């Protein structure tokens, strides 16, 4: 019975974590100013089911968002270039798991 309880607890935690939206740091590999998209290499590694560690894969054609003031009346614009650091994530307000880059 304890084993069943433990497994059910693990399943509930895994189900809850699927709905967690967070950011991951990375670096810009390429930037397309016409489309305002970037190729990004996330920092860090993830653990595969067999226990080995693997680098996160490069993500391509990721939309880039820059910070703006309220009502979009003020925007800070600066050049985006390879090796720039960024944060990538899927905001909880989106219906799809689309990754976005925030500079």
Topology, element by element:
Layout: H1 2-17, E1 23-32, E2 37-42, E3 45-47, E4 53-55, E5 59-65, E6 85-89, E7 100-102
Short description:
The protein has 103 residues and is α+β, with helices and mostly antiparallel strands. The protein has one domain (22-102): Gp5 N-terminal domain (OB fold (Dihydrolipoamide Acetyltransferase, E2P)). It has 1 helix and 7 strands; from the N terminus they run αβββββββ.
Can you give a write-up of this model?
The protein is an alpha+beta fold and 103 residues long. The chain has one domain (22-102): OB fold (Dihydrolipoamide Acetyltransferase, E2P). Helices cover 16% and strands 36% of the residues. The chain is built from one helix and seven strands; from the N terminus they run H-E-E-E-E-E-E-E. The strands form two sheets. A five-stranded mixed beta barrel has the order 1-2-5-7-6. The N and C termini lie far apart (50 Å). Residues 93-97 have low confidence and may be disordered.
């Amino acid at each position: 019975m304890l084993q069943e309880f433990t497994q059910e607890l693990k399943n509930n935690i895994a189900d809850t974590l699927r709905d967690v939206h967070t950011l991951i740091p990375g670096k810009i590999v390429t930037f397309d100013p016409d489309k305002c998209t970037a190729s990004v290499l996330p920092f860090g590694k993830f653990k595969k089911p067999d226990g080995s560690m693997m680098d996160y894969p490069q993500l391509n054609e990721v939309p880039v968002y820059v910070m703006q003031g309220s009502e979009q009346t003020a925007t800070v614009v600066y050049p985006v270039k390879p090796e720039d650091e960024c944060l990538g994530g899927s905001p909880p307000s989106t219906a799809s798991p689309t990754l976005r880059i925030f500079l």
